[in-house]
Structures are given as structure tokens and as C-alpha cells.
């Protein structure tokens, strides 16, 4: 399951550089996560790094992009090729 950044985002800029897949970018008003690139850090880390550094806890799982751990690993392997 990909992650999503909610409206509680304060644009503090700490999540974007932490994403090993480059899935986080500045959106029109807040940061956004590209679900095609988000693996919840599977393949890189034990925990999603953006969630770890977010000071306002605004990065939950995206219910519109559910994926199993196996699917996340397959996505990681495609991305890192």
C-alpha cells in the first residue's frame, strides 16, 4: 500500500529528501507521494522514512492504493532494476 500526505502537512521539507525512491515531490499546496514509486521503503528500510521524520504525523497508508508486502517488493525491484 502506498502512503499519502494529508492536508495536515506543514510543508516542512523533511520528508522529500528521505524518500529513497524519489516518490515525494512538492504539489500545488502540500507535498505529494507518487503511488507508482512509493514502496513504503520496502527493500530499503524497515520503516517508511517519511513517516519516521514527519513532525505532524500526516503520512498514513493510502486506502486507494492497497498493496501486499510482496507487491511492494516487486515494485521496489522494478524501480531499482
UniProtKB/TrEMBL annotation:
<dbReference type="InterPro" id="IPR017896">
    <property type="entry name" value="4Fe4S_Fe-S-bd"/>
</dbReference>
<keyword id="KW-0479">Metal-binding</keyword>
<keyword id="KW-0411">Iron-sulfur</keyword>
<dbReference type="InterPro" id="IPR047927">
    <property type="entry name" value="YfhL-like"/>
</dbReference>
<keyword id="KW-0677">Repeat</keyword>
<keyword id="KW-0004">4Fe-4S</keyword>
<feature type="domain" description="4Fe-4S ferredoxin-type">
    <location>
        <begin position="1"/>
        <end position="29"/>
    </location>
</feature>
<dbReference type="InterPro" id="IPR050157">
    <property type="entry name" value="PSI_iron-sulfur_center"/>
</dbReference>
<dbReference type="InterPro" id="IPR017900">
    <property type="entry name" value="4Fe4S_Fe_S_CS"/>
</dbReference>
<keyword id="KW-0249">Electron transport</keyword>
<dbReference type="GO" id="GO:0005737">
    <property type="term" value="C:cytoplasm"/>
</dbReference>
<feature type="domain" description="4Fe-4S ferredoxin-type">
    <location>
        <begin position="31"/>
        <end position="64"/>
    </location>
</feature>
<dbReference type="GO" id="GO:0051539">
    <property type="term" value="F:4 iron, 4 sulfur cluster binding"/>
</dbReference>
<keyword id="KW-0813">Transport</keyword>
<dbReference type="GO" id="GO:0046872">
    <property type="term" value="F:metal ion binding"/>
</dbReference>
<protein>
    <submittedName>
        <fullName>YfhL family 4Fe-4S dicluster ferredoxin</fullName>
    </submittedName>
</protein>
<dbReference type="Pfam" id="PF12838">
    <property type="entry name" value="Fer4_7"/>
</dbReference>
<keyword id="KW-0408">Iron</keyword>
Amino acid at each position: 500500500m502506498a502512503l499519502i500526505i494529508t492536508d495536515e502537512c506543514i510543508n516542512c521539507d523533511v520528508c522529500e529528501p528521505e524518500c529513497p525512491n524519489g516518490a515525494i515531490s512538492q504539489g500545488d499546496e502540500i507535498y505529494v507521494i507518487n503511488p507508482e514509486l512509493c514502496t513504503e521503503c520496502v527493500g530499503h528500510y524497515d520503516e517508511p522514512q517519511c513517516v519516521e521524520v514527519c513532525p505532524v504525523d500526516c503520512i498514513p497508508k493510502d486506502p486507494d492504493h492497497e498493496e501486499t508486502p510482496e507487491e511492494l517488493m516487486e515494485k521496489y525491484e522494478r524501480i531499482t532494476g
